Amino acid sequence: MKIKKAIYLAAPLFNDMELEYNLKLKSRLDVSFDVFLPQQDGLLLRNMVDRGVSIDSAERLVFDADIQAIRDADIVLAVLNGAHLDEGVAFELGFGFAIGKRCIGLKSDVRQCLPTGSNPMISQGCERIFNIEDDLVRWLTVNYTKQEVIR
């Protein structure tokens, strides 16, 4: 039995449009990969606080769960859309890079925070950044379901 490579999908998750987009992207990737999407597979801060968990405890539980999921992943796939990058995504990407994970970006949004493009701490932390979702999915499927990734 072939084991699927694991992807940690780092993406903003603070409004309905972001949540819906993340689910759509995960659905496309699930065909070939084992995808961890924090909004679906992890813990959500607002849900835990609503259930009576203290904010400090809830924050620690979310943090620990997401850190473990990044450690367990082969790839950190970061959705980089927006004029300014989501803080959680930036952290997840940086942590993944720091522990030697393959880091890939998806930025289909033309807005950028710098006249030269992305912040170099983001662009240089990513092995590749794709502007078109179809290209990303195709590249991952062709290259990352093999033993070695073609850069």
Automatic annotation (TrEMBL):
Q: Which GO terms describe its molecular function?
A: 5-hydroxymethyl-dUMP N-hydrolase activity; transferase activity
Q: Which biological process annotations from GO are given for this protein?
A: deoxyribonucleoside monophosphate catabolic process
- SUPFAM superfamilies reported for this sequence: N-(deoxy)ribosyltransferase-like
In terms of InterPro entries, this protein maps to: 2'-dNMP_N-hydrolase (IPR051239), Nucleoside_deoxyribTrfase (IPR007710)
Asked if the keyword Transferase belongs to this entry, the reply reads yes
Pfam families found in the cross-reference section: Nuc_deoxyrib_tr
Quote the protein name from its UniProt record.
Nucleoside 2-deoxyribosyltransferase-like protein
